Structure formats: structure tokens, C-alpha cells
Amino acid sequence: MSVLVDDDTRVVVQGITGGEGKFHAEQMMEYGTNVVAGAVPGKGGQEAAGVPVYDTVHEAVEEENADTSVIFVPPAFAGDAIFESLDSGLDLAVAITEGIPTQDMARVNKRLSETDTRLIGPNCPGLITPGEAKLGILPGNIFAEGNVGLVSRSGTLTYQVVDSLTNRGIGQTTAIGIGGDPIIGTDFVDALELFENDDETDAIVMCGEIGGEDEEEAAAYIDEHVDTPVAGFIAGRTAPPGKRMGHAGAIVSGSGTGTAESKINALNDAGVPVGDTPEEVADHIEEFLD
Amino acid sequence: MKLHEYQAKQVFADAGIPTPASQLASDVDGVVAAAEEIGYPVAVKAQVQVGGRGKAGGIKLVEDEEEARDAADSILGMDLKGYHVDRVLVEEAVDFTNELYVGITMDRGEGKPVAMVSTRGGVNIEEVAEEDPDAIAREHIDPSFGMHPYQARKAVYDAGVDRSVARDVSNVLMTLYDLWESRDGADAEINPLMVTSDDEVIAADAVMNIDEDALFRQPELAEMEEEAAGGDELEQKADEYGFDYVRLSGNVGIIGNGAGLVMTTLDLVDHYGGEPANFLDVGGGAKAARIANALDMVFSDDNVESVVFNIFGGITRGDEVAKGINEALEQFDEIPKPVVVRLAGTNWEEGMEILNEDLVTVEQTLEDAVQRAVEYAEEVEA
């Protein structure tokens, strides 16, 4: 079992003729992902990474039965590319692109609420079910099959924590990088719900960071709805306060949330131990599984 | 990217939001000439990107030429919370009876823009938000439709704004939203929006933060950014290189990929008893030249005694990172500061083959790399 992705997933890569799109399409296929098509406006009829390229995602859905997209489109056009995925009726869209304007994502977010497509990202590494398929840019070799679900706002931090787990022989059901942007599709609560309902997932790692209130909301959700043991990590304890925090942004909800301290406290109150280092997170997971 | 007050006011004024008469000046005579043209009393306001300018002596109200000269003398050239003041805005002093707050920002929790109005303007609105959140009326906007006029009115009436100016404040809020949307604002704020005894409203301050990710479609504002550049020399350099960089007070330089991992590296330096000198995220997919620039940045900070390079490749490739490190270090006869490298993830093995190990210390794990860098920094301090 796994969540969201397995070896039946039929992937269309948006932006497959670009440098990153082609490289990672090949990497995904090498890992075993069922990449069935590419979609690049104006490049229809060509072939890239060994699969047919279509001008539109709709065509890739019609011709190749694609049900999932992975988006490697430059930021200026990525919002539009996500819209295209949502309007093509895909089950899942995974947006890797970093640097999409926030207002574009606000409009995407609105449309998302009107469709049945699930969005992962943007500005994320994607997701992987070890041994079956990976969607995105995660380095496949560090993951191992197992029974720990992982959800993280930071891509590279995901790798760091997974590395600690795998080195101890602890594998993963699925690892999901949800992205650290202000507006994202799938969030902690969504991922926690998926793992809670997955029979194969016996423990969950949740990696957060300063800013926003998603970790506090996740803590409240865990307290109410999650029986699977969860261990946490929060990056940014030593980050200087005030930097890059917009003035008006801070007053939307009052303050006192969004700091490492408030997130750690909220998680602890929900019974979630938070590691000081990635190794300590692995320690907690080891204890849960014993 | 944050516009200076004078730039934001220009943008607001061009869109039709009333602002006081004002002129920019960079020397004492310029201040006096501007003040005489506008007519006393005027406010002389330091143009630097920090909050609390008034309390720090960066804003002075002057009644005549002598006071204008004194104010210009004391403000121009002053160091305001680490920022050198080289320009002031000379501005008509508005006689007001009331101060309001209006602002537009993105509510990330809701994933929607939100308009905010309060009758408690002219003070630190963050404190108001904390002590008395109900004193700020909030109205969420559907980003695909924009703000409807009724929503602006609703926010204004909910906030308890006086009826005599409600219509004008609603109009200001609508204009502010249009600006925020069309200029890719992150935040757009007026605090205070002054109400005069004649029931006019005037934007006495102006804040406009632009979404950095959208600057590619805001060429006019991108030009303003060059004009707005100022402050810390290293942070300016980071802007030129396009890095997310924050200078800190410690002595262990930190370079990594991905904000979460870099923050974690900072946290570990602290955990092992060291002090981070900076946050530097090279971003995703960095090529060799960018890696070399990152090292150049960190070496330029005199406080740095050692550097830890923590790369866990996904989209970033270990071979490119190693090339960049070699490129940056091979130009030195002697490496200025010890560099500890930890490479993992995509193409890390290729990277380790390329990396010139005579120039750096290699560690396999994050923990070991951080501890080694902290030790190096301590050795220098001892």
C-alpha cells in the first residue's frame, strides 16, 4: 500500500523538453515511474525522454490515459500550467516549479477548490513511494520501502531526515514534499489524513519550518484525529525574527504563532515529540516502531 | 522587495490616492529649498527601509529654515538601525483630526487576499492586532474577481470609520487593492491615513512590498528596486547574486540548498555550541558559477572564521556543486577560511570524485560537518 502514487500511476510531464523536465523525466523512468507522455505547447508530435510529446495536457489524457502530471514549467508560465492540469481532469498534479508569483497561486487555489484534482506543491520536490514510483526530483537512492509516512514543507530537509531513517534500516511508505510557499495545494492536515487511513503506515514524520500556521493546525488535527504515532521536526529555531516577514502579513492573525517555539509547543501539546536534530527524529521513530 | 516611502507614495499618488506635497532631497540646501517651496511646517523624513524611524530620530517636524537646517544636518548621514541615511523626504505637515489604517495583504492561511481597515491608525498596528484583534476589520477577497465595492464599504463600516469620510476611505481601499493586484504586491499599506478637519483623507505614509517572484512582469518596479538598494553591503551583494541571504552575528558561515535545510544547518550550528554568521540558500538547481558566488559572499564577511557547505541534492547536482567549490577555491594561494563540505543526494558520488580534497575538509554526515566547522571557528577564536 501507499498513498497517492504507485506503479499504475500514468504520468504526463509538463515541460518535458526543458533541461530539468527531460533530466528528471528520465530519472523518474529509471526509478520505475510510468511516464507515458510529455506536454509542451508547440512541441506536439516530437518525442522526448522516449515518450510522445503533445501540445496540450488534454491530448495526453485522451491519447495516453495520463492521470497525473508533474510540472517543470518556468515560473512565469507555471500558474497557467497548473490550471491546465486542473482543467484536464487529472487525479493529481505535482508542481515542482519554484518562484511562482503568489497572486497566481491564489487564483490557482480558487480553481483547485472547484475541481477534484489534488495538487502537490508548488516549489516542492514531489513525492515517492519507494520501490514503486517517484513524481518529481527526489533522489530515489536514499529512500527504502517500509512503514513510515513522511510529510515535509522543505525538500532538502526531507532528504536529510529520510537519510537518517534509511541508514537505520527504517523504510518509508510514501514521502510527500508539500512545498514551503505561502499558498500550496495539499497541506499537512491532508497528508496526515492520508497516512492515518493507510494500513501500511505505522508511524509518521512531519517536518515543518517557521512561518505560517500550518504546523499549529496540523497539531490540532493530530490531537483530534490521528492515532498513528507522529514525530516532528521544525526548522528555523535560530532564524532571526522579523526578517522577510511582511508587516501586514504578521497582523492578519495577530501574532504569537508562526515561530519555531509556538509550533514545537503545539506539537508537544498534541503528544508529538519534536527532535532537536534530524537524528533525534529518527530516534523517536525507532522507539515508535519497537 | 520593499519600495522606499517616496517611491510607494509616488505609485499611490499616480493611482489617485491623495498624498501630501513632498520632495526628495539629499543635502541641507535641498531640504531648505524643498521646504520653502512646500511651505512650513514640513516633516523631514529619513528614507531608509526600517520601521520606527520617528522614535529613532529619523523624522522631524520643522517650523522654519533654521529648524529645517538642523533637522537636515542631524538626519542626513545618520546611521539609523544600521542603515546609512543619504536621502530625506521633505513633506507638507498635514493637520489631522484622526488617523486610520488601511492595508491589503495575502492571507496565507486562507490562500486569499485580505483587506484590513482600522480606526486605530498612526500606531504600531501589529500591537493592535495582538492586543485587540477586533479593532481591525478584515474582508477576504476572491482573487479571480478582485474586490467588489461593497466589500470595501463593508470593511470601512465594520471598522467603525466615521460616515463623513467612509466613501473616501472606501475609494482609497479600492485603489489600494487595484494597485496591490496589478503591481503584484505582497503588502500595500497606509498607516496613517490621515483625516483632516475638512474631512479629507491623505496618505501620510505608504508601504508597498512587491512579490519578488513577480518582478519579471513589473519592469518599472524592478527599476525602482535598483534605486531603492541600500543598507548592508553584503546584503546588497546577495541581491546582485540573487541569493536568499541574511547576515547574522556569529562566525560560522553557512551555505546550503533549500531554506529548510539551511535553517536546519543554522539550528545545528547553534545546537553544537557555535554561532551562525549567515543564512545563505543557493536555491534549487544551482550550477557551478552560483556555488562559487556563494563562497565569495561568505568569504566577504569579516566575521566568518569557518564555512560549512551542506548540499543535499535533488534538483541540485553534486558534480556542479563540486565544480563550483573548486572554481572558487583554486583562485586562492591560501584558502582564507577553512571550508567543510558535506555532499549528499543527486550525483554526490560524481561530486566527490571531482571535489579537490586538498582545499576542503569532507564530512559524510550533516552532524559531523557542522561540528567540524564549529571546531574550526573555535580554534580561531582561541
UniProtKB/TrEMBL annotation, chain A:
Ligase among keywords: yes
Coiled coil: none
Keywords: Ligase, Nucleotide-binding, Tricarboxylic acid cycle
UniProt GO MF annotations: acetate-CoA ligase (ADP-forming) activity; nucleotide binding; succinate-CoA ligase (ADP-forming) activity
Binding residues for substrate: Y159
One of the protein's GO biological processes: tricarboxylic acid cycle
Catalytic activity: GTP + succinate + CoA = succinyl-CoA + GDP + phosphate; acetate + ATP + CoA = acetyl-CoA + ADP + phosphate; succinate + ATP + CoA = succinyl-CoA + ADP + phosphate
Start and end residues of each CoA-binding domain: 4-100
SUPFAM superfamilies according to UniProt: NAD(P)-binding Rossmann-fold domains, Succinyl-CoA synthetase domains
Family, as annotated: Belongs to the succinate/malate CoA ligase alpha subunit family.
Function, in words: Succinyl-CoA synthetase functions in the citric acid cycle (TCA), coupling the hydrolysis of succinyl-CoA to the synthesis of either ATP or GTP and thus represents the only step of substrate-level phosphorylation in the TCA. The alpha subunit of the enzyme binds the substrates coenzyme A and phosphate, while succinate binding and nucleotide specificity is provided by the beta subunit.
Protein name: Succinate--CoA ligase [ADP-forming] subunit alpha
From TrEMBL, chain B:
Keyword Metal-binding among record annotations: yes
Residues at which substrate binds: N257, G314, I315, T316
Name of the protein in question: Succinate--CoA ligase [ADP-forming] subunit beta
Protein EC: 6.2.1.5
Cofactor: Mg(2+)
UniProt remark on cofactor binding: Binds 1 Mg(2+) ion per subunit.
GO annotation, cellular component aspect: cytoplasm
HAMAP family in the record: Succ_CoA_beta
Organism lineage: Archaea, Methanobacteriati, Methanobacteriota, Stenosarchaea group, Halobacteria
